[in-house]
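Hi C.,

You asked whether I'd gotten around to modeling the 215-residue construct. I have! Everything is below, sequence then structure, no commentary in between.
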Amino acid sequence: MKYITITLTVLLVVIGYGTQSRAVAQGKTTSMSKRDTSWYSYSKHYDEPSDTYYFLTRIKRKDKHGNLKKIKLAQSTVLEGESVRQFAERVGATLAFNASMGIKRKTTEEKLFPVGIQIENGKVVQEREAKRWRFTLGIKPDNEFVVYPPGTTATEILKDGVQDALTAFIPLIQNHKEVDDSILSLTGAFKAQHPRQIIAQMENLDIIFLSCGGR
């Protein structure tokens, strides 16, 4: 079976809803949406040793009104590909992050297939065998992230209370401890210079994304 690597297939998104306000312009009253941005922040940085720029995005678990800012899983199956920005504008997401990978399989169906396990809103969208270096990230209803090693089934993940899940990442730190360095030797791709997303979760379930070009 022939495989062609396609990026930007599975994304994590956060939908931000604003409050309505009214404005008067040229004698006309119009309605505008005032977006609440207090629950997230982002900044750009430069790393001299690697000569690359990276962005840090912090997402608070709740907004100033106490509403949960739910992390959701969404699929992009555009065959010709699309950028994260295009995807975010299409689905109306405030924040969107590339979170997995997909491949176009040589089948009768002209569509993209993500790798491994994909669970959306408690429903198993796909369950395929994944390579031994592809872990699954589970997201519980309160935004808690959980790591599942290769070989864990979708049924086991759902029984653990997970609502969304996606395959294609590795853990670097678990329970405040670094994982064994041997995990980085599972595939040569981990040592290659590629765009990367690193996700960290704080004790209060706030989330930090590190996004870098890597090249």
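If it helps when you're writing up: DSSP finds two helices and 19 strands in the chain.

Thanks,
B.
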